[in-house]
Amino acid sequence: MSYNKPADFVQTMIDVGEAKIKTGTRDLILRGTMAGIILSLAVVVAITAMVQTGIPLVGALVFPVGFCILSLMGYDLVTGVFGLAPLAKFENRPGVSWGRILRCWGWVGLGNLIGSLIVAYLIAISLTMNFSIDPNAVAQKFIAVSTARTVGFENLGADGWITCFVRAIFCNLMVCLGVVGGMTARSVAGKIAAMWLPIFIFFALVFEHTVVNMFLFPLGMILGADFGIATWLNFNLIPTILGNVVGGLLFATIPLYLTHKKTSASLDAK
Q1: Does residue 266 lie within any of the structural domains?
Q2: Where are its TM segments located (predicted)?
Q3: Bridge partner list, 3
């Protein structure tokens, strides 16, 4: 069969979570950096498609290509690690502690940030001919989107912060289902299809993703968007990270773990 049953892929989720926790620091940073680079380029492809066609849905259709590539290469997004790593702790795997889980999250997240910032600067050079011309239509779109999702939230105060947090919850529900989707199939084509669907949903609905935002907002600032690092952190990145943790764990991986690993007794057994 080309499909792994839920009980099987949930076991894989636990094993993968443990493996990531026990991965060395150098590899966590390297895999995180490459994931940040690839996902950032996928954002550029998506925004370019949106500008060229005038149809936002086209951008959502092409964006998952980056997620599929980085997943098949074995690179790591901190959003996926948010959902997978704690499962090994729930299973009391040897050598797994909350401290090592946080270490894993931190190094992968740092790698994602490094990769995202590298691409942000290089794409800014590409879009402005090494800052010799005014931002083109694609660059203007980046400025507009990054401003709307920082200053726009800031202008709403607590309501904007909560909105960003909720969108981040939904985002990582979909992203972690995309990560798990790659474990449900045995063929490359099957893995791509299973990953593509939830990632399309998150991008189409403009949910908030930690790593995407590590690229999108620094690029906006480099291109001249009128907001600063404090606004980005307080009204986007911080609520996005918190929401992604909640969405990845409480809405994605823990329900799968509870119903397919820690199953309750069947009615026939009573």
Answers
A1: no
A2: 28-51, 57-84, 105-127, 160-180, 192-217, 237-258
A3: 185
